[in-house]
Amino acid sequence: MRTEETAAQYAAAKTVLGHDLSNIDDLNRYLASFFGGGFVIMNHNLWVARKSTMANVVGSLPDPNVPPTVANTDPATYGWPLKTTDRACAYVPFISDACFSGYASGNAGGPNVNNINISGANNAASLVSAKKTSGHVFSKSLSSITVNCTYADGHVAAHKKQLIQGVYIGDSNSGWFY
User: Which residue spans within the chain are E strands per DSSP?
Assistant: First the structure.
């Protein structure tokens, strides 16, 4: 999946690590290098409530309060999944493809589906070839976007543009979708 992105990341990892990417520790070190090692960019959204491990962030991520959870969305209605028996597990995925707006020049951000970033983010300026785009797109066309979602109740879904919803507002008015 995402062969162009994967090839660019393998090439960039060799530069960062000084050798080929060959194990989980290598992968973690490479992904952490995107933002100086404070956290790992895994190119997927993890939609479960969890305690922050960052010194400057108190509370849980994603924040269960509205905002930054977008009002009238499934997470605002059902909450973020905490355990497999939560009602939210049938409505809110626990993991999805990374899908976001913002982080690139000319991209307004926010929870509007038409603002989803499909041309690459500027979050890895030193690794230009490894820029991340949102979801799965064909020929950089927003109308072709698909976001794969996995739910704790056992079902999976591929959300096409018509089903994608902005559910979380991040830093710099970035929007996060599934």
Answer: 44-46, 50-51, 60-61, 95-97, 100-101, 136-138, 141-150, 156-160, 166-169, 175-177
- The CA distance from 178 to 176, in Å, is 7
22, 112 in Cβ contact below 8 A? no
Q: What is the pLDDT of residues 7-55, one digit of tens each?
A: 777 888 898 899 999 988 888 788 777 666 565 666 778 887 766 555 5
Does the predicted model carry a pTM greater than 0.90? no
Q: Rounded to whole angstroms, how far apart are CA atoms 167 and 164?
A: 9
Dist CA 147 CA 15 (whole Å): 30
**25: Cβ contacts below 8 Å, ≥ 6 apart:** none
- Work out the angle at residue 95's Cα, subtended by the Cα atoms of residues 91 and 99, and round it to the nearest 5 degrees: 100
